[in-house]
Amino acid sequence: MAEEVVLLDFWPSPFGMRVRIALAEKGIKYEYKEEDLKNKSALLLQMNPVHKKIPVLIHNGKPVCESLIQVQYIDEVWHHKSPLLPSDPYQRAIARFWADFVDKKIYDLGRKVWTTKGEEQEAAKKEFIESLKLLEGELGDKPYFGGENLGYVDVVLVPFYSWFYAYEKCGNFSIEAECPKLIAWAKRCMQKESVSKSLPDREKVYGFVLQLKKAFGIE
Amino acid sequence: MAEVKLLATWPSPFYYRVVWALKSKGIAYEFIEEDLANKSPLLLQYNPVHKKIPVLIHGGKPICESMIILEYIEEIWPKNSLLPNDPYEKAVARFWIKFADDKSPEIWRVFRSVGEEQEKAAKDSLEMLKTIEEHALGEKKFFGGDKIGMVGIAFGQLAQWLQVIEDVTGVKLLEASEFPRLQRWINNFKQVPVINENLPDYDQMFAFFKGRRQMLLASK
């Protein structure tokens, strides 16, 4: 049966990167469509009328929205290859917990690091590092959060690695100095083609952040 | 069967989500009341990251975050299923569950604020209700189907807590004439035996939240 898979995305989005990685891990061929978020396509508005956001995964004409839901959907439909979620229900609950933790903390805190200054920025940096350290604790001595192979939490978290350089430049700090184990993990993930081909170059992301700062009038 | 315990507080709507899921599957559990003003060593041990309730403890192992708990319950005890089997239908259900989780806090902002802030929160709450009315509720009785499921349970706050918030603050949000589908869903939902028999007492809730709001406003 011909499977048609389309991904509506925006190149610097860590949420879009999650889906790219999951599709690559499963070896799924798909059409990538870049969205101009200042001029959203009719397709995007039709496929995600509630939030009008990317990424949107369109499978045989039917849309799936929200990156964590998309990754789980991909894992369930293409379950015969490279499983991302563990098979044990308790381990799945743990994986979901940490994916939820990443969603609650990393994006918003990272955003605060590059959009604020002074005390507010210091507070954001502190909490950001604390959150990464908790994730390091969960990783422990495993090569990946998923164990011997890339798993759900790896796919959910590693996209932010492409933004770390921008956070560091804007916040004037070193993530590697504070969380060396996490950086080692990220570099290990980047050795996989599914990850390295899905993440943009960090300088490009930094350039994008500088453009946004200018547009928002942030010093 | 391994022991099931539920660490929670009355009248948290998140606690009730787990109760409804457990009861709908006929699972026995021990309720352990937590005092959030004086968190127990048990809570700090079982949810060190967030220190929040509810926490489900199954055979000594903790699961945190109410909707993650519900997915776990669904996988361990699949009878009387709360999620569709089809991966696409499941993805749609999870979309609305996430929407419920992301947007329901708006009604609590109405509860906690006054003046301009409350007006903004009321506006955002109405946006949320409109989206549910227009996009989430088809003509079927309960969201995706004919029996209650995880989506209905996720929106359960709207079935009782919303009314308490409206009565305590005097801010009317859900006019039945403006939200006929949502009102119909609430009426149906509250009549389902497992929900009907497991709703907090309205008068007790009103008294509790009235007291809370008074405390909140006094401290502003």
Q: What is the approximate shape of chain B?
A: globular
**Could you describe the largest sheet of chain A, including whether it forms a barrel?**
4 strands, mixed
> Radius of gyration of chain A from the CA trace?
17 Å
H and E string of chain A? EHEHEEHHHHHHHHH
**Cα distance spanning the termini of chain B:** 49 Å
Biggest beta sheet summary of chain B: 4 strands, mixed
Overall structural class of chain A, as computed from helix and strand content, comes to alpha+beta
Helix vs. strand class of chain B: alpha+beta
* Percentage of residues in helical conformation of chain A: 55-70%
Count of helix runs of chain A = 11
Protein chain pair with the most extensive contact, residues per chain: A-B, 23 and 22 residues
- The percentage helix of chain B is 55-70%
**What is the molecular shape of chain A?**
globular
Regions with little confidence, pLDDT below 50 for 5+ residues of chain A: none
Main sheet strand line-up of chain A: 2-1-3-4
Strand content of chain A: 5-15%
Oligomer: heterodimer
Number of helices of chain B: 11
